[in-house]
Amino acid sequence: MVGEEGAFVLGWDEVLTEEELSMTLKVLCMSAEEFQEYKEQDGWEDDSEEEENSTLSNEALSRLKAPCKKLLSDSVLLTLESYRSDLKAEQELLDKKEAFEQLSRREQQALHVRYGQKRILHQLLELLA
Fold first, then answer.
1. Residue 9 contacts by C-beta under 8 Å, 6 or more apart in sequence?
2. What pLDDT digit, counting tens, does each position of 2-43 carry?
């Protein structure tokens, strides 16, 4: 369901691996009985009509059912915990021109990437609250 990397790709406005996230949330939020019934339905047939009408834009994410929001929110928090520093520390380093310039070009680029990733994750937490 999740692909080889085992991760979902989020953008500023929507989920870029929408199909994978949608299916994963659907399955993980099912009761054991619902899952068994779903499995027994001719394999994993497409719910194309349902999925066609449900893109995972930021607006749609904010309307997820409570169990799906909780699961996604907990996943985001775990991802944020995997970083060595928090968003505020990254912002402070970006704001301190002298300290930022002491970093190598590669470290500066990595800082920008980490900061962007954390901002997207924090935005997602706000949408799910």
1. 15, 16, 17
2. 555 667 888 888 888 878 888 888 888 888 888 888 888 865
Counting other chains too, the contacts that 25-32 makes at CB distance below 8 Å and 24 or more residues apart are: 25/64, 25/68, 25/71, 25/72, 27/1, 28/71, 29/65, 29/67, 29/68, 29/71
This model's pTM is above 0.90: no
Task: Tell me if 5 is assigned to some domain.
Answer: no
Task: For residue range 44-71, list pLDDT tens digits in order.
Answer: 555 554 544 456 788 888 888 899 999 9
Return the C-alpha torsion angle 97, 101, 103, 107, nearest 10. Answer: 80
Domain coverage including residue 78: 18-41+53-128
Based on its alpha-carbon atoms, the radius of gyration of the chain, rounded to whole angstroms, reads 18
